[in-house]
């Protein structure tokens, strides 16, 4: 039995939902998001709560039960509060800036890395070494942050690179004579 799936999702104030057979959409102050539903789970809306149940007793239905419930909770949290990921840049000469609809990273390459900012996401370079990525879609925010981090991930010897705020990098000792 799913521990996550059996809990109902409370609809926050200011969020209106539309439930059809194959999708659920939520509209709030930060926009509108949709989630496609599978036929393996049934979703019902009862006065300010959304309840997810498996449609049958198959392994796939039980696996998607908690996942669907978590995705619906993220949908509601996204349109009401939004999600934010912060990236820290460490290294001499490493910096970032936002130019129009592009994030420009200087990460020690012979060229600048330009990343197109997708619609629905806002990127702010709070300092030259701190980037805040925010938006309503949790998956989109996390994917953009992971793509930016992948250009120069943190390395364990000097600690240089792009890392998430609060991420701990296990430092290694250098070569000995």
TrEMBL record:
Part of the 50S ribosomal subunit. InterPro entries: Ribosomal_uL6-like (IPR000702), Ribosomal_uL6-like_a/b-dom_sf (IPR036789), Ribosomal_uL6_a/b-dom (IPR020040), Ribosomal_uL6_bac-type (IPR019906), Ribosomal_uL6_CS (IPR002358). GO terms for cellular component: cytosolic large ribosomal subunit. This protein binds to the 23S rRNA, and is important in its secondary structure. It is located near the subunit interface in the base of the L7/L12 stalk, and near the tRNA binding site of the peptidyltransferase center. Residues 11-82, 91-164 form the Large ribosomal subunit protein uL6 alpha-beta domain. GO terms for molecular function: rRNA binding; structural constituent of ribosome. This is Large ribosomal subunit protein uL6. It comes from Thalassospira alkalitolerans. GO terms for biological process: cytoplasmic translation. PROSITE patterns: RIBOSOMAL_L6_1. NCBIfam families: L6_bact. Keywords: Ribonucleoprotein, Ribosomal protein, RNA-binding, rRNA-binding. It holds the Pfam family Ribosomal_L6. Belongs to the universal ribosomal protein uL6 family. Signal peptide: none annotated.
